[in-house]
Give the backbone structure.
Amino acid sequence: MTRIALESIPSLTFYKDTLTAARRTNPIPQLVCVGKPCALYQPDAVHCKNIGGSGTDVDWKCEADLPSSLRFGRVEVSCEGWNGPGDPIVMKGSCSLEYNLVRIPDALRDDSGWPRSYKIPWFSNLDKSGIFFMVVWVIVLAVVIYSFAKPFLHRKPSTTGATRGTSPPSYPGGGAGGFPGSHYSSPPPPYTKDHSSATPSDGWRPGLWTGVALGAIGNHLLNRDSSRSGEYDWERERRSPFGSSRIRPVASYDSQDRGEGPSNLGAMRTSSGYGGSSSR
């Protein structure tokens, strides 16, 4: 049996279904859960750090993996006083943690609804360079589509019906190329040897280098997506500039996803709680 000052304990780890050491009193469970959510889930282990204080007035920060629908409420570390209740010198191994669990409303959960949790797989993994290549790829693709559709958009309506029934002007003697009895006596259009010079240009059309550029950009995006397919969600959220952050000193939970929690309570995340201590 060893005694130690409560304020000199740097950290404590408590385990579920484990009893404390005792000298004056009876052993008690290391983890004591309070509240209705305790029936839904209880962590197997909780780690607490000493964040300051003196005597028996010591503050603790406690962390554990909890489903995203639950968070820590009030926490309190209680140790057995060496000479009696209120003694700042406590028995080593006699500390216990009493904690409250609070149910988080679905509207406040970050994985409860589509607007907050749904992400397009491609865009959720893109950084600045990926977004730039995506924008360039969309612009080039739009230019190609417009180039193909341009001839159909600017096609002139046929004038055959408008000129039907009207006689072109005639020339004396039938004109060049005319013959007796011919209905049309207009001369034929002039012959041009170079056909390309007589046809108006339709503008830029996609070619070999356009296809090469589109293929390179698409390959870049696909390789980025496949190279990061093995990452965990919490790694992508930590890298993202829009990832969630902790707010202190109130009890909170961060965005480190650790898998699905029990009974559809949400993904497992690290939750933190703050509280004091006492000597029993």
Remarks:
- The two ends are 17 Å apart (CA to CA).
- The chain has seven helices and ten strands.
